[in-house]
Amino acid sequence: IWLTTLGTLQNQILRYDYDTWLKTTALVSVANDLAVIGAPNVTTKQVIEDRFMSVLRRALGEVLGYQVNVRVIISSAPAAPSEPAPPPPAEPSQTAEVAEPSFASFNQPAPMLNQLPLGDPNRSSVLNPRYTFSSFIVGSSNRLAHAACMAVAEHPAQAYNPLFLYGGVGLGKTHLLQAIGNYALDRNPEVNVLYVSSEKFTNDLINAIRRQQTEEFRIRYRNIDILLIDDIQFIAGKEGTQEEFFHTFNTLHGAGKQIVLSSDRPPKAILTLEERLRSRFEWGLIVDVQNPDLETRTAILRAKGETLQVPVSSDVIDFLAQRIQSNIRELEGCLNRVIAYANLNRTPVTVEVASAALADLLDTSRRKRVTSDDIFREVSQHYGIDQRAIRGRGRSRNVVLPRQVVMYLLREETDASLVEIGELLGGRDHTTVMHGYNKINDELTSDARLRNDITSLRQRLYGENAR
Ligand code: ADP
Ligand code: MG
């Protein structure tokens, strides 16, 4: 129990604090809702009592599955565990990735009770302090979602209730959800915030049923000011869980408590979701998080480099931002990899190093480079507009749109600068190019047809390897 708790704690407090104060403690006993913790000396006892009681209580409660009071005593026993501390629990992001079933398995019936993993305390429902609004970069792809989350964090249950956030993997949903929790707690530590994945909700429920503690389960889940449920799509097909969640939802919503849900798809697209839940999910506000555009990718990389305190030159950032378009998690992963690679080889982080570090990923041989000719050809074909018209001066909507799409694709898919793109387009000014790029970028948010256009153009440009 203690090792798991320590593992959870490691993630929540500063490394230094952990090493100095908590690593040397031991769990002496747990009985009658009282956990006794042994500290090696008076100072440690005092520091823990002054600073770490609430985290301790929360983490222990998390691991035990019920709330306990915590008392610290001085225990002369050799408290320092000789075994290494357990690896810190997977961050929610990683957990979600591992747990994400393939689409094919999505609509299968829920597994039998005894096949489900037992309540796994490492599926921590504790907030990760890294996920805050201040570490979240806002761009056009996530502006709405960010604003909605801010509003909810500032005015729980008054702005949008429930708030339903959806979008693809690695686009920042978990980050935003937890940012709401961190923000609200920061403002008022008394607020009862609970962040859980829908899987944890399911597992808790199953455990409660098995231990005949459903009453405790209800008290725990219905006694909350802000409930943040991540990856709600996983309750699809699980009838028992949906039933229980339905009541949890009603109780909280009825009591004026805030509910925020995330999912990889909108409520309508969650198959085998009970209608009554679906309609409740649609009561409040539904917002999506989209793939980050070039600017946002660049800004995220820059911020991340600063956080890591590693000098990453802007040509490396541009290189990565151009090539890694899938999602933000991958973007971060690639930057980490490049930095690690440079460290290993004791070289500065250059474009050459980056391209070597990511050779297998970028796979330049397979993923052919797109040229401006390719883009002109495909766009011209797609819209049935002559290439000369695209380069020309015509202002009618049916040439302006393809022209702007060309600007957009040239900027996203090639290394051409704004000035170069302007030249390719019959000598246009770079501000015109910027305007065209932004126009498409903005419209992508609201215009599904345009999104389809761009997706199928990318597919044509990259053939099999389209991302
Ligand atoms: P999701 O839950 O949508 O799969 P996550 O919230 O786990 O995605 O995000 C994946 C990673 O990308 C996290 O490390 C997160 O901090 C980071 N991230 C996502 N969006 C942003 C953003 N706008 N600014 C900074 N970091 C971000
Ligand atoms: Mg997530």
Describe what this molecule looks like in 3D.
This protein is an alpha/beta fold and 467 residues long. It has helices at 2-10, 15-22, 42-64, 92-99, 143-154, 173-187, 198-210, 214-222, 239-254, 275-281, 294-308, 314-323, 328-344, 351-357, 359-362, 372-383, 387-391, 397-413, 418-424, 430-446, 448-462; strands at 26-31, 34-39, 69-74, 163-167, 193-197, 226-230, 258-263, 285-289. A 5-stranded parallel sheet has the order 5-6-7-4-8, with helices on both faces. A 3-stranded mixed sheet has the order 1-2-3, with helices on one face. α7 (198-210) packs antiparallel against α8 (214-222) and α11 (294-308) crosses α12. The longest helix has 23 residues, at 42-64. The radius of gyration is 26 Å and the shape is globular. The chain starts with a helix and ends in a 5-residue tail after the last helix. The structure holds adenosine-5'-diphosphate and magnesium ion (MG). Residues 93, 96, 131, 135-137, 142, 169-175, 300, 328-329, 332 line the site of adenosine-5'-diphosphate.
